[in-house]
Amino acid sequence: MNMKKKILAGILSGALILGGGFTINTAQANEPPAPEQQQEFQGKDKRPHRPQMTEEQLNNYAKDLAEYYGLNQDEIATALKNHVHFEDVKQAAILAKLSNKSFAEVLAMKVDWFQVAEKLGVTRERYEAFVKDEMLEGLAKHSKLDKKTVESLLKENYHPHDITIAGLIANASGKNVKDVFAKRTINNNWEDVAKELGVDLKQIMPEKPNFGRKHR
After folding, report:
1. Sign of torsion, CA 111 9 130 76?
2. Which tens digit of pLDDT belongs to each residue from 95-135?
3. Contact indicator for 163, 150 with CB cutoff of 8 Å
4. Helix, strand or coil for residue 206?
């Protein structure tokens, strides 16, 4: 997968959603990757099932999205409670921010996100630049790496999920992140790498909901 697809997949996955927010949990660190899924403006039939969330979790997600993008929390919460897919909520939030429209107004336009973006005057280039910058900032924060390092790792085809875990292990162990990646092989998992470096993976991995597909 090239860097553009990796960035678009990452921003809509559990590797990162918000600056304050949701990342992979410890149990998922050892799970095998699911088949790659096209995440960019895709149809519902191609997407993973929406995970079951409590009302409190939905309200917290709506609150974080509203604060992060400067949108109406009630509108987002209503969409989530009406079972709108998380990816549609995320797309509507981004396009609402980029077009200065309300979340509800943008969501109501949805037939195909390409068409909505075109109607709102949001070019593909502007959208992708926004998503890329958001992805890099968020991954840098969650992995405790700098943006330049994160971008370099993405270009080297490391997955955002793995960058997050490797960055946290590197930070906790005082090792260089590339040295941490070098210890990850087909014969071990991230928990093994952390243990070898004297790090308790459960202590450094935030226990948060994952709103995207599961990764190794």
Report:
1. positive
2. 999 999 999 999 999 878 888 888 999 998 998 899 889 88
3. yes
4. coil
